[in-house]
Amino acid sequence: MPLSFADPAAASRPVHVVASDALADWLGGRTEAEGAWLAATGFEASLGELRLLPDAEGGVAAAVLGSGTAKARARSRFGLARGLAALPEGDWHLEGDLSPEAAGEAALGWLLSAYAFTRYRSAAKFPKARLKLPAGCDGARLMAMAEAEALTRDLINTPASDLGPQELEDAFLALADRFGAETAVIRGDKLLDRNLPMIHAVGRASTRAPRLLEMRWGERGPRVTLVGKGVCFDTGGLDIKPSTGMLLMKKDMGGAATVMGLAQMIMALELPVRLRVLVPAVENAISGNAMRPKDILTSRKGLTVEVNNTDAEGRLILADALALADEEEADLIVSMATLTGAARVAVGPDLAPFYTDDEDLAAALQSAAGPACDPVWRLPFWEPYEALIEPGIADLDNAPSGGFAGSITAALFLRRFVENPRYMHFDIYGHTPADAPARPKGGVGQGARAILTALPRMLDL
Predict the structure, then answer these.
(1) What pLDDT, on the 0 to 100 scale, is given for residue 1?
(2) Are strands 396-397 and 304-306 parallel, antiparallel or unpaired?
(3) Domain 13-132's class?
(4) pTM here?
């Protein structure tokens, strides 16, 4: 992934960014030949529409990039990135009436458009153009965001044959080593010795041992703990998924991939926080010792859980990890997981729904999502549904019957394992179902940039 901005001192050609309603005025300041050329090619300055302007020798003198209408811009993230990704080789710079926010979105979109998953093919096409960093933009921050997103995408896109709990551990340790973070790993039956029984119960049926990964970085500032669901493949267990339901289950470690990307951004930007990352890494497989429907598990916290669906395993491993996280004082605890299909039904694949009881955290996150180009949507910890996760025979039910409010009941389940009021939970999708500007089909990070942008307000940094 060729990530870099063009040398600011190098000669470059302009990319004129023009809105649809400003096209006529802009053409008034151009040559008659340029106007005729754009008219002949049907240029309307729609969002992401690109035209190259020729010079007298038949080369390319400049480019014109449509920014569309206000309505079109409101309905599309990274709309300019589609045109920027199509620029020919060379150095380019943006010109036009762009706000700092719009320029930053364009620059980030250009960086994200440079991503391609090349592990299994060599014919990937990378952008050949080099864009200069727009004035007023923080290049180091944009680069950190794009590099972290590449890590998240690579992890999610890698199939389970090449990314099981061991390989996720390897990537986790490599990330920690890059930034000098401390690590610890608890594997296999040692999970029982260390009182992490539900992580063990979910992962014990696989030939690839379950484990808990831990990373610590930073020596000063507020304490931030990130917990990511690391189900490297989910068969559904004995409540086995249909074949169509397994097709995307390599992405069931998307929560782990996303918190790793967020951790990378925090460390790369040297934020003044004390960071802790916990990833329970398992494969939900089927064998003679797999957990069964109606089994009752005793969690690290001491709460008992009736397993009414072995395919609701992510909340089980997160529960033990969250209980461990909650045993240590923290100024913020965040869990991220590809947890429920109900969240996708509720808000679709683009929005990252989140839960918190802390109004200040919610306000900070919602105000940061727009500038971070990372949309989120708050869903409620709805107290009247608490009874739905209480089966009677045990303290908690991991899969309430009825099918209603599945994302909310899963979030309520997780909240039972965290006493810290400064807790946020994200129920993400981690996948782009079709190519979109700056977001190719496949794995994608959600919520991480919004959290990063909100951290100064959340933690008074």
Answers:
(1) 45
(2) parallel
(3) alpha beta
(4) 0.96
pLDDT digits (tens, 9 = 90+) for 56-74: 898 999 999 999 999 999 9
Domain spans of the chain, in order of start: 13-132, 142-459
- What positions carry a catalytic annotation? 241, 315
Please write the tens of the pLDDT for every residue from 283-341.
999 999 999 999 999 999 999 999 999 999 999 999 999 999 999 999 999 999 999 99
142-459: CATH, from 3.30.465.10, 3.90.1170.30, 3.10.450.330, 3.40.630.10 = 3.40.630.10
